[in-house]
Amino acid sequence: MTENIIELRGIHKVYGGDNVVLDKFNLDIKKNEFLTLLGPSGCGKTTLLKIIAGFEQADAGSVIFEGKEINDLPPNERHVNTVFQKYSLFPHMNVYENVAFGLKIKKVPKDEIDKKVKEVLKLVALEGFENRAIDSLSGGQQQRIAIARAVVNEPKVLLLDEPLGALDLKLRQEMQVELKRIQKKLGITFIFVTHDQEEALSMSDTIVVLNKGKIQQMGNPVDIYNEPKNAFVAKFIGESNILPGVMLEDFRVVFADREFECVDKGFEKNEEIEVVIRPEDIKMVKPENGMIVGKVTSVIFKGVHYEIELEENGRTWLLHNTRYAEVGTELGIDIYPEDIHIMKKVEIEAGEDDEN
Length: 356
Description:
This protein has helices spanning 45-53, 95-105, 110-123, 139-151, 169-186, 197-203, 221-226, 231-236, and strands at 4-15, 19-30, 34-38, 60-65, 68-69, 80-84, 157-161, 189-194, 206-211, 214-219, 241-249, 252-255, 258-261, 271-277, 283-285, 292-301, 306-312, 315-321, 330-334, 341-344. With 356 residues, the chain is of the alpha+beta class.
């Protein structure tokens, strides 16, 4: 079993007297994993990162690092480094001086600094950039320098607070691949904070979905996407059709005014539940062959698929399909048992708009 490097026990943080940002929060973070804290603004993910780094103190609870509580350790004595969205590079220093800064503070010998800086610049694919000015670099290159400066000190954990947020879409996608490559090469723990589901799904070993200071679901990207635990997770991770329903018995469910076969079990008979169906899992068929028939009200081309809205008996269905459908026409849809995901009916409020 993989050993934990960080254990968070009962972490509680309140701002302004009544704004509970982290609510008796517990989490185990394993060695060498890429863990992502994912959630809307205000859910507590950045505050959690600051508490791990030592930039903020929790009102209650313990931060345990390799079996020892580090609540009272200052940031510079913790084996963690942080990369922020604003890279905080020193504009008056060149690339070499930026990367070497932490090593010089530690009074590492010059020949060892030279060796480490060259190694880490090779790691981030910026060999030969030692003498370049910071303001001559692109956003992606600056981000790599910020990562190099953090990892050259050989932290056991690297904290990344929305580091891709300032990059354009294409560069952000490229850097997702780069970050995962760097993490695997270094073999250290990355804790990555984002509100971007694509970033979380593409890079993470483990995703922790947060809302209002609590964990809504934790797991690998495939399980989080395919088996959301509640409506909040289903809405936040990808697009979903979420409908009220009743679980008649194991493998039988009623929603959208008809009975369906499903693959879920373990619910009470006639229990009220919620059904999640991903848009890409709905099959388009001729109206006479459809389980459900509706009228196409909107079609938007998304590059690799069409986003189709279908109105049916007061409900709006969202479909993703490579086939085109004409607005105003009737369309049938089929839903296979394995594409129907049953969730407990739980009311969860959305997160606040302001970041904490």
